[in-house]
Design brief:
One of its GO terms (biological process) is fatty acid biosynthetic process. It holds the Pfam family Ketoacyl-synt_C. This is Polyketide synthase. By secondary structure, the chain is of the alpha/beta class. The chain has two domains: 259 residues, Peroxisomal Thiolase, Chain A, domain 1; 75 residues, Thiolase/Chalcone synthase (Peroxisomal Thiolase, Chain A, domain 1). A six-stranded mixed β-sheet has the order 5-4-6-7-1-8, sandwiched between helices. Helix 3 runs parallel beside helix 6.
């Protein structure tokens, strides 16, 4: 595992618990690994209980209010929720964004997987959530149905605070929305809170729920969706990405504490860094110089040699614009430090 401190005074962070909810019924780490190992197809035609796809599908991307794809990756039983387990009344549960519902469940499962009783944490545990989609809020815009639970049911800030409330956690607690980077930004902030000694345990989670066609229509208009519903990162056949649902939660501890507690350690986080594009070719287009900078910054800041890296898990959207730019940034960042090939990919 190496030393528990770097020359910058930071320390490695251990992942000691995981809760997950993905398509293909992958609701445990073993399930998820089996899906990857078997190359299982988890992208299916959008079922009628989500929306009537024939009313929205059109191969012509320029058609207003239409989408070029019929496929998404969706979890089983989006609306299902054991509200009584979390001491939430049926009336309040009805207003609760499914993103909040499943966040409660996967965070509980992460604690359970880590063998940690949250009742023993209190002030020592922070909560960090990456969240962005607003489908549930859009569904509840009718003021005739607004009640006392509507605002807390849709507010992204409450997605983190509800976890703190449910498990009586009194450390830092907030949600962050940085689009596709929301989960990794929440992870960065969770690690930063540990390094700043604001908490000694961090509960980090992220989610993406799909309830309405509206957001998919918008992404289709942007030209980033795969018409055939297949995402092929860094491939000559790449023609866009596929929208999918997912929830994940992890429990983080300083590596030294995890070793002292004899925890099961899934992996170790050596460091992290975040940055923005600044002024680029467009608001939504990736910037290779910015991506190169943030990668180099992370490795330099935390004393990790880039020549020791064998694999990079990329964003890998499978778009004709995003993939080449990301590959260029990775090449620029790593190629000057190595003689052997670097593998890249994207789950």
């Amino acid at each position: 595992m190496g030393s528990n401190k770097t020359s910058w005074g930071y320390f490695p962070v251990a992942v000691v618990g995981i809760g997950t909810r993905h398509a293909c019924g992958a609701n445990t780490t073993d399930d998820f690994w089996k899906v990857l190992k078997e190359g299982k197809e988890c992208i299916l035609n959008i079922p009628p209980e989500r929306w009537a796809i024939d009313n929205f599908h059109d191969e012509d991307q320029t058609r207003q209010g239409k989408m070029v794809t019929k496929r998404c990756g969706l979890i089983d039983d989006l609306e299902g929720f054991d509200n009584l387990f979390f001491k939430i009344s049926p009336r309040e549960a009805a207003s609760l964004d499914p993103q909040q519902r499943h966040l409660l469940e996967v965070n509980y499962e992460a604690f359970e997987d880590a063998g940690i009783n949250p009742d023993n944490l209190g002030e020592s545990c922070g909560v960090f959530v990456g969240i962005g989609m607003m489908d549930h809020a859009i569904q509840l815009v009718d003021t005739s149905t607004t009640d006392a639970y509507t605002l807390t049911g849709i507010a992204h800030s409450v997605s983190a605070n509800r976890i703190s409330y449910a498990f009586n956690l009194k450390g830092p607690s907030f949600a962050v929305d940085t689009a596709c980077a929301s989960g990794l930004t929440a992870l960065h902030l969770a690690c930063t809170s540990l390094w700043n000694r604001e908490c000694s345990v961090a509960l980090m989670s992220a989610c993406n729920g799909i309830q309405l066609p509206d957001i998919t229509v918008g992404f289709s208009a942007l030209g980033v969706l795969s018409p055939d519903g297949r995402c092929s990162p860094f491939s000559s056949t790449a023609n866009g990405y596929v929208r999918s649902e997912g929830w994940g939660a992890i429990v983080l501890k300083p590596l030294s504490q995890a070793l002292a507690d004899n925890d099961h350690i899934y992996t170790v986080i050596r460091g992290s860094a975040i940055a923005a594009n600044g002024l680029a070719n467009s608001l939504t287009m990736p910037s290779p110089p910015a991506q190169e900078y943030v990668m180099k910054e992370a490795y330099e800041k935390f004393g990790v040699s880039m020549s020791d890296v064998h694999y990079v898990e990329a964003h890998g959207t499978g778009t004709m614009v995003g993939d080449p730019l990301e590959a260029e940034a990775i090449s620029r960042a790593f190629n000057r430090t190595r003689d052997n090939p670097l593998k890249i990919g994207s789950v």
